[in-house]
Amino acid sequence: MLLVLPVDLDDDLGRKTGLDTPVIGRDAVEAAAVALATADPEDSDVNVLFQAVHAYDDLLADESVDEEVEVAAVTGVEGSDVQANRAVGAEVDEVLAALTTGEDVRAIVITDGAQDESVLPVIRSRVPLDGVRRVVVRQAQDLESMYYTMKQVLSDPETRGTILIPLGVLLLIYPLSIVASRFDIPGAVVLGVVSALLGLYTLFRGLGLEETVDATAERVRTGLYAGRVTLVTYLVALALLVVGVVQGFDALGSARSVADAGLPPQRAVAVFVHTAVQWAAVAGVTSSLGQVTDEYLADRFRWRYLNAPFYVLAIAVVLYGVSGYFLPSIPGTTPLTLSRLALALAAGTLLGVLSTLTFAVAESRLPGGPEAA
After folding, report:
1. Pick from 126, 68, 69, 121: nearest CA to 97
2. Interatomic CA distance for residues 185 and 94, integer angstroms
């Protein structure tokens, strides 16, 4: 007897259709193939089952085959290969026990790949093999899947931009170099600029900064229509910070030009901070007042919010005093004395403590905020 034996090592047939295995007989195997195709048309084991039915019909029609032919589908289990092989062996034993024949049984194993063929030694230990057939689908699935995947990727606007924009920039390097050479611009400059732009774009996309930029733009747009004061105060604060940094570097440059022995690092930091901290303090007060104004307009005002500008002033006074104490003794610069440093530290501390106490008392005794309404 010839036994056509389709093998499903990971038991897709049983798991997806709920059928009991092994499945013995042509009609039963065909029905199982239809059930699996209905449950999962993309499963390759569907082709294995139909190939087994086809092989069974061919053997019956072959006049040179003068022995009985039977077909039975056996399955393993999902997971461990060892357990799957043992399950297949047990089902082969069950199939052989169910066959009522006095002839010697030989098997033709049908699989869909090398993984299922790992069970061949287990089957060979129970029944001689006349052959092994591997089912290969004609449609060249890998190439076709690649084509449709690329087509789907290029049809998506977001993915299309991610892939095609860097590719387009790379392809433009050579023609841009030619155009640059016409204007006596070195090709290395063009290559450097294009590489920098491509690198920035790649980092921008890779870090997901487009979401942050979109969210920031949305907040700015909402703030413009909602009349938020912080949009103006933040812009003014940024301008003040820039001015402070520039003034700090100018003062540092002037100090280095008149210092005969040069400036130690701590003295250089002191010059920069002593000059820039005044502008930074004004920037901090401006931005905090804008935030407090917006909170008041949105009916979320709390008296403790007024601590922010006073805290900024307190920190600025402390930094101004400490940096002034460490200023170098050079023409045009007068370091603060120890008594003035102590006065600045005391003033900063008192300013922070008194503002905290004042607005804590005000919040407990005066109406303010939504809960007062």
Report:
1. 126
2. 82
Read off the pTM.
0.44
Of 70, 76, 87, 79, the C-alpha closest to 28 is 70
- Among residues of the chain, what percentage have pLDDT more than 90? 28
Read off φ and ψ for residue 169, nearest 5 degrees: -65, -40
Strand partners, 129: 107
Would you kindly state where each structural domain of the chain is located, as residue ranges?
2-138, 142-207, 225-372
Contacts of 77 (CB under 8 A, 6+ apart): 10, 11, 83, 84, 87
If you write DSSP's letter for every residue of 153-175 in order, what string do you get?
HHHSHHHHHHHHHHHHHHHHHHH
The string of pLDDT tens digits covering residues 176-209 is: 777 777 777 776 777 777 777 777 777 776 666 7
Query: Does residue 74 sit in helix, strand or coil?
Result: strand
290 and 230 Cβ atoms separated by less than 8 Å: yes
Average pLDDT score over residue span 61-66: 84
Sign, CA torsion 149/155/159/163: positive
| Closest by Cα among 70, 89, 92, 78 to 13 | 78
Q: Are 272 and 248 in contact (CB under 8 A)?
A: yes
Alpha-carbon separation of residue 251 from 30, 204, 244, 325, 327 (angstroms): 91, 36, 10, 16, 11
d(CA 308, CA 289): 8
59, 75 Cβ separation under 8 angstroms: no
Distance CA 317, CA 282 (A): 12
Spatial distance between the Cα atoms of 171 and 363, rounded to a whole number of angstroms: 65
Contact yes or no for 367/296 (Cβ under 8 A): no
Helix residue ranges, H only, 1-43:
12-17, 26-39
Residues paired with 72 in a beta bridge: 24
Give 27-56 pLDDT, tens digit per residue.
999 999 999 999 988 888 899 999 999 999
Burial class of residue 134 (count of CB atoms within 10 Å of its CB; 0-12, 13-18, 19+): middle
φ and ψ at residue 359, rounded to 5 degrees: -80, -20
Helices 157-182 and 141-155: angle between axes, nearest 10 degrees: 80
What is the rounded CA–CA span in Å between residue 359 and residue 302? 9
The H or E element spanning position 82 is helix 81-98
